[in-house]
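Quick one before lunch.
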Amino acid sequence: MHAELIKEIQTLFSTEEPIYLHEPTFNGKEKEYLNECIDSTFVSSVGKFVDQFEQQIAEYTGAKHAIVTVNGTAAIQIGLIVAGVEQDDEVITQPLTFISTANAIQYCNATPIFLDVDKDTLGLSPIALKTFLENETTQVDGHCVNKKTNKRISACVPMHTFGHPARIDEIVSICNEHNIAVVEDAAESLGSYYKGKHTGTFGLVGAISFNGNKVMTTGGGGMILTNDVVLAKKAKHITTQAKMPHAWEYAHDEIGYNYRMPNINAALGCAQLEQLPTFIASKRKLAESYRTICDTLGLQFLNEPADSISNYWLNAVILENREERDAFLSITNESKVGTRPIWQLMNKLPMYKHCQTDALENAMWLEDRVVNLPSTVIL
Ligand SMILES: *Cc1c(COP(=O)(O)O)cnc(C)c1O
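Model of the pyridoxal-5'-phosphate complex:
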């Protein structure tokens, strides 16, 4: 079965050369815009591509405001700050995520709490969230307080895994009831929609990544999404060293960050964004092919959840158990077909093993079984 799948993947990508998990595709005006950017000398922190890229991502996602950042991790961190997360707070997230999510919480000197995911979305489970909040927290002066630690739970960071939307409307309404701000980690889900609305636009703030392995890239980069004009202004201010607008004076009114995306990266982003619909169409077609192949071979393919349109950033299969998973990873990688297991759960890593969790049944089940398949755009 594994040998047949390898053959099928080589046929899909029309090569017997090494096939990587996800490579970027540059097939548009990248070189034109980069040359224009260099010729203008505005390659750094200001320039027309920065403004254009923010405006176009806002239009594409339907968010009222979009603020560029140096990377997606910084976008989450700033998202948490503008959402009101402070030192010694706690922030709920899922353990089944890339390390950035947990690190961004820790950069705010807050502590993550890891709650279980749903098996069909791989995103934070509204039931796990509701159960935890009802049993383990109380309201004090309009804040959610963890009964065990007496600390304030100020935010919740659900993540849209591999581009598949979480049950984000339910998560937002549960968090609203408990006075918790939602900061969506939409790093992987540019071009994914839940009930017709773009991921990253349900919560108070959303964060996107344009790292080299994502659905489109700026080399490195990220974007903060929000519908709140005050938060948008604050995000722009603190990502640009908190410099007060003035023709020549260096005046700063708080400790800001040098987190703005350079114009040269934004130029790449503008060119990539023009191709995004083509990339996503190709990825959805590839997913369709994988689904057919997996059905034939008796493998369980991870489909987009109900009520969702996924960008299928990374395709995934769910194997029988950890032994089969490991055998699958060895055979495919030995054949130069780039497959990867899903991330180790955050609560198992040395930095986060002291953090509070619930039973994490689904997260542990998925950790043992989920493997990503090569998912580069095929043109
Ligand atoms: C890629 C990614 C990020 C952000 O990554 P950067 O490399 O900092 O742009 C954050 N969260 C998740 C889940 C990701 O996959």
